[in-house]
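ok, trying the design again with the full structure, not the truncated one.
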């Protein structure tokens, strides 16, 4: 399944701290072009020009730690990603990204944590456009989003629910790009620019066990920041090999 993230690595977790290091491959799902590709008639009779279907191959380093002393209620989490992006008829690209957040539980609100988060990224090339040679994915020369965030992790009866929402400030700088970054034609056709302003994000994931092996899930999310906006809705089914039954799992949680 090309749309599924494939990864391998090492990890260690305990109550107060944990870390992981992973090699991964995943499809870029930001647009129809980056996910499935596109085609148009070419200058050669009887043939078509095809481009898109972007894959990311890279390494991810992540971890968390509970702060000491009087700050023991706070937990810091973060990850660093370096990746190479390639596609059919698309210029190669590289990215470096960092995500982090600092959270503490809210007294009287079970499963709720609040705090601050930050996301920053940098790409070698601007491949945000949709014409031949481009990948159709947001690829700023530099970007940063930071602000407040609220996170909920819990259950509503049989439904496992993970949700988060954030509000803050964002900045993005896009580099100039040629008309076709793969061939270098029409140098500087697309001018660079920068923008800043309000940044928001939301993600809601709900999972309902159907029986011993099957789980039905719904994911809703969106991101709005300077230079980029994305909204999505996914309905999915997940099959677990050798999983305990849903009733056994619920009984175990009540113990």
């Amino acid at each position: 399944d090309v749309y599924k993230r494939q990864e391998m690595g090492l990890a260690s977790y305990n109550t107060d701290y944990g870390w992981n290091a992973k090699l991964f491959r995943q499809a870029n799902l930001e647009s129809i072009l980056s996910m499935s590709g596109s085609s148009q008639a070419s200058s050669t009779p009887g043939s078509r020009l095809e481009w898109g279907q972007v894959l990311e191959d890279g390494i991810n380093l992540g971890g968390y730690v509970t702060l000491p002393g009087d700050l023991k209620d706070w937990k810091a989490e973060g990850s660093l990603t370096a990746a190479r992006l390639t596609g059919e008829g698309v210029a190669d690209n590289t990215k470096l990204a960092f995500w982090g957040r600092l959270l503490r539980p809210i007294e009287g609100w079970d499963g709720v944590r609040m705090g601050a988060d930050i996301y920053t990224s940098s790409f070698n090339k601007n491949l945000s456009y949709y014409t031949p040679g481009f990948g159709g994915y947001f690829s700023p020369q530099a970007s940063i989003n930071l602000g407040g965030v609220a996170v909920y992790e819990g259950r509503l009866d049989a439904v496992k629910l993970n949700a988060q929402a954030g509000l803050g400030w964002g900045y993005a700088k896009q580099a100039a790009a040629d008309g076709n970054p793969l061939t270098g034609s029409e140098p500087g056709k697309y001018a660079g620019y920068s923008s800043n302003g309000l940044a928001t994000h939301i993600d809601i994931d709900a999972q309902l066990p159907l029986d011993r092996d099957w789980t039905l899930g719904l994911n809703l999310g969106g991101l709005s920041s300077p230079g980029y906006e994305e909204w999505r809705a996914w309905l999915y089914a997940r099959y677990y090999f050798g999983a305990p039954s849903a009733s056994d799992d619920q009984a175990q949680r009540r113990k």
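Keeping the full-length input from now on. The radius of gyration is 21 Å.
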